[in-house]
Design brief:
By secondary structure, this protein is an all-beta fold. 0% of the residues lie in helices and 49% in strands.
């Protein structure tokens, strides 16, 4: 059983930056593709992006491509979401997720149902 705990959320002005962290425990971190999702009030949960087991490949939703960067440190069992050029429409609860994968260096965008483990979420609010 993998436990995920996000941190780093908060209030930021439009155009600003924020870095979220997600600490994992209870499993072999390097065995999992790590993903980030978000859910705004009244909207469906959507994928932000994901990173391969070895950290060499990333994939992003079109809405955040070029502004958000996912990275991971397998020695620290932690995945990060660096968010830049933030917009009010980025306001949401951000969730860290994990799913096992047999591929070390390959990652694709998958829907939320494909992920086995979820954090409790952290609120990000971008003011205009």
């Amino acid at each position: 059983q993998v436990q995920l705990v996000e941190s780093g959320g908060g209030l930021v002005q439009a155009g600003g930056s924020l870095r979220l962290s997600c600490a994992a425990s209870g499993g072999t971190f390097s065995s999992y593709v790590m993903g980030w999702f978000r859910q705004a009030p009244g909207k469906e949960r959507e994928s932000v992006g994901a990173i391969s087991r070895n950290g060499e490949s990333t994939v992003y939703a079109d809405s955040v491509k070029g502004r958000f960067t996912i990275s991971r440190d397998n020695a620290k069992n932690t995945v990060y979401l660096q968010m830049s050029s933030l917009k009010p429409e980025d306001t949401a609860v951000y969730y860290c997720t994990a799913r096992p994968s047999q591929f070390r260096g390959i990652v694709t965008l998958r829907p939320s149902k494909n992920y086995d483990y979820w954090g409790q979420g952290t609120q990000v609010t971008v003011s205009s």
